[in-house]
Amino acid sequence: MILPIVAYGAAVLRKVGADITPDYPRLEQLIADMWETMYASNGVGLAAPQINKDIRLFVMDSAQIFEHLEEEEKKQYSDAPGIKKVFINAHIKELNGHEWAYNEGCLSIPNIREDISRPAEVVLEYMDEQFQQHKETFTGLSARIILHEYDHIDGKLFIDYLKPLKKKMLQGKLTDISKGKTKVDYKMIFIK
């Protein structure tokens, strides 16, 4: 089932998500719905707060980006051809490598894209959908998406990395998003 995506301005987007246990109600269905919602919205990642759930859960599929890159472009990234994963109860253990900028957007903040600098590598402890524990290092575009979605489960948004002047320049657009005055081609809800 395609779920509505929570728009900028909703309190849930600023909450730190709670860890969950394997008996979380209808978890398997929730994950399936998140995949369906992400793909229907043309996203490459989706975090539970974006569907109004303040839990530490996100899905991501960086392979979609690589499908649309030329062969030469793919060689620029260490994580080609990308990955598709579910992350439950994720916690960052290390951030490594030089920071690099990439033009990011967010389904909860539609029609705004900005260059955001993030570390090249993240070491993450997380559980998969079978609640198997993992500690894994991610690089490239996969690390970028993971860090963006991880921010969501920590109550942060990509616009938090912008310089104050840039954020001030976007304030009108952000206000319009929070009031439902922005057109999108996916289901969105506007709550406080």
UniProtKB/TrEMBL annotation:
<feature type="active site">
    <location>
        <position position="149"/>
    </location>
</feature>
<comment type="similarity">
    <text>Belongs to the polypeptide deformylase family.</text>
</comment>
<feature type="binding site">
    <location>
        <position position="152"/>
    </location>
    <ligand>
        <name>Fe cation</name>
    </ligand>
</feature>
<comment type="function">
    <text>Removes the formyl group from the N-terminal Met of newly synthesized proteins. Requires at least a dipeptide for an efficient rate of reaction. N-terminal L-methionine is a prerequisite for activity but the enzyme has broad specificity at other positions.</text>
</comment>
<keyword id="KW-0408">Iron</keyword>
<dbReference type="GO" id="GO:0042586">
    <property type="term" value="F:peptide deformylase activity"/>
</dbReference>
<keyword id="KW-0479">Metal-binding</keyword>
<keyword id="KW-0648">Protein biosynthesis</keyword>
<keyword id="KW-0378">Hydrolase</keyword>
<feature type="binding site">
    <location>
        <position position="106"/>
    </location>
    <ligand>
        <name>Fe cation</name>
    </ligand>
</feature>
<protein>
    <recommendedName>
        <fullName>Peptide deformylase</fullName>
        <ecNumber>3.5.1.88</ecNumber>
    </recommendedName>
</protein>
<dbReference type="GO" id="GO:0006412">
    <property type="term" value="P:translation"/>
</dbReference>
<dbReference type="Pfam" id="PF01327">
    <property type="entry name" value="Pep_deformylase"/>
</dbReference>
<feature type="binding site">
    <location>
        <position position="148"/>
    </location>
    <ligand>
        <name>Fe cation</name>
    </ligand>
</feature>
<dbReference type="InterPro" id="IPR036821">
    <property type="entry name" value="Peptide_deformylase_sf"/>
</dbReference>
<dbReference type="GO" id="GO:0046872">
    <property type="term" value="F:metal ion binding"/>
</dbReference>
<dbReference type="InterPro" id="IPR023635">
    <property type="entry name" value="Peptide_deformylase"/>
</dbReference>
